[in-house]
Design goal:
There is one protein chain. The chain is about 30% helix and about 25% strand. The chain has a 5-stranded antiparallel β-sheet with strand order 2-1-23-22-21, sandwiched between helices. Helix 2 packs antiparallel against helix 5.
Length: about 475
């Protein structure tokens, strides 16, 4: 009789879970899509729900979990990325007969609007003066040779290249590798005018075909790293005095060297040569003037995950390649991530990792891999820093609207991932009594807008919470 009761209880639970999962597998927006799900109860060590958990699915920005977790584990939360400022030649009676080099080592925060000190150039000028330099018979040289010259990931789409969210990745970043283009729009059907650009890039040519429209808004910048042309296409709202469009910086290291030169001259230090850059390692003997340190890695990854910053993620991803060799390459970054986690017992052999931010549509990760990774990080000594880097449902970052004003408001800490036809979430659900669920829900190739996919995922998580967790509480009263 007891065995029969246990069987009925097991059968009821299975039916309950099948009904929950059916939200994803029978909903009109997701029934024909590629769906992978895993929900794991960390406290009991049992899987609550699973559907094609080992199927690899384009992760979009959820792959930033893999990037930031790896960097955090390898370097530690208090690590600061160093940018050495060095020189050649000799300093005699206040005159440097030589050049000053900015040696890029992968810091994404130089001049960033989000992390670090935007007025760092003034501090650099002070350091130059402290070294006794009043005149430079030479120039400022941006050394970007620490990364290889594959600045644009070959897995990225042409439609993305040149936009602020897909800039070239160099060993020296500056201003988030972003240029702000201010436009003026007139009447419906007229062409928008470029008013100014910030920063100003000498000799950069804009091919502007942006039209003003009262019914649509979608303007884009297209171009390639180091390129001298940027193509502005699409539409912006009509009758706007100013409209700011963001694009990439073609050569952020060179722009930084130019801005440093201006800051030095403004500070009373003459510079005889124009700023330039080098992209391949050389054997020039250099002496150190000072070293600039970034914000802590904890601060950097918090911004990366909260705002889903592709440039930050790609800089961190490329930095990992230095554990093998320099110049840092995409291939070595991928190889290092695979090897690192395989050694930790998380097998990434069936995953495809082409970048660190998720822009490459060929990326592929499974829900089960994410659950394994998140379980590992929940036991890491860097658990707190990692958890703090994740947006909170209904409250922060890219999860501000997710599960807002529901029973799971403020209880989900996760990374989202969105591309056309794809919506993914992976993270933690923190429940009362210190209970924790680790989950990943991934939906790809759905024939609807991503905001509708989010609603389906919200419905699924709320149902599994209500029917599994709250029902379990009722039966234990």
């Amino acid at each position: 009789m007891l065995a029969y009761v246990h069987f009925l209880s097991y059968l009821c639970n299975m039916i309950k879970l099948l009904l929950i999962l059916s939200i994803l597998t029978t909903h009109p927006n997701t029934k024909d899509a590629n769906v992978g799900v895993m929900v794991y109860d960390y406290n009991s060590g049992k899987t609550i729900d699973s559907h094609r958990a080992n199927a690899v699915i384009p992760p979009a920005s959820t792959i930033k979990l893999l990037t930031t977790a790896t960097v955090l584990e390898v370097y530690g939360e208090n690590y600061r990325i160093k940018t050495p400022i060095t020189y050649t030649g000799e300093i005699q009676e206040g005159v440097l007969n030589g050049d000053i080099y900015i040696e890029g080592k992968g810091d994404p925060t130089l001049g960033s609007r989000y992390v670090g000190n935007q007025s760092f150039l003034q501090n650099w000028v002070k350091e130059i003066k402290k070294a006794g330099i009043q005149q430079i018979n030479g120039g400022i040289i941006a050394d970007v040779s620490y990364f290889d010259q594959e600045a644009t990931n070959p897995g990225w789409l042409w439609d993305d290249m040149g936009n602020y969210y897909a800039p070239g990745i160099f060993a020296l970043s500056y201003l988030d590798n972003t240029q702000r283009i201010t436009l003026n729009s007139g009447a419906d059907g007229t062409r928008a005018d470029i008013i100014k650009t910030s920063p100003h890039i000498p000799n950069l040519i804009f091919e502007n075909t942006i039209m003003c429209s009262s019914s649509s808004d979608g303007a884009y910048v297209r171009g390639v790293p180091y390129g001298s042309h940027r193509f502005l296409t699409g539409t912006i709202p009509a009758d706007r005095k100013t409209y700011v469009l963001k694009g990439d910086l073609p050569n952020p290291g060179l722009t930084l060297a130019q801005e440093f030169t201006k800051a030095l001259i403004k500070g009373g230090i003459s510079v005889s040569e124009k700023a330039t850059h080098i992209a391949v390692p050389d054997s020039t003997a250099r002496k150190k003037l000072f070293t600039h340190s970034s914000a802590t890695l904890k601060e950097i990854i918090r911004h990366t995950n909260h705002k889903s910053d592709n440039m930050y993620a790609e800089m961190l991803f490329r930095l990992l390649a230095s554990k093998y060799s320099t110049p840092c390459s995409i291939g070595n970054s991928t190889k290092y991530i695979r090897t690192y986690w395989n050694n930790k017992g998380i097998n990434l052999s069936n995953c495809r990792i082409l970048d660190g931010c998720g822009l490459a549509p060929q990326d592929a990760v499974s829900a089960a891999i994410y659950v394994d990774l998140l379980k590992y990080m929940y036991e890491s000594k860097y658990k707190e820093a990692f958890m703090e880097s994740l947006p909170c449902s209904g409250e922060s970052g890219t999860l501000t609207s997710f599960l807002k004003d529901t029973e799971l408001h403020g209880k989900v800490y996760a990374k989202s991932g969105t591309i056309s036809g794809t919506k993914n979430f992976a993270g933690y659900i923190l429940l009362p009594n210190d209970n924790v669920w680790v989950f990943a829900v991934m939906i790809n190739s759905a024939n609807c807008k991503t905001r509708k996919l989010q609603k389906v995922i919200e419905e699924y998580l709320l149902d599994i919470y209500k029917k599994h967790y709250t029902d379990t509480l009722d039966t234990t009263k």
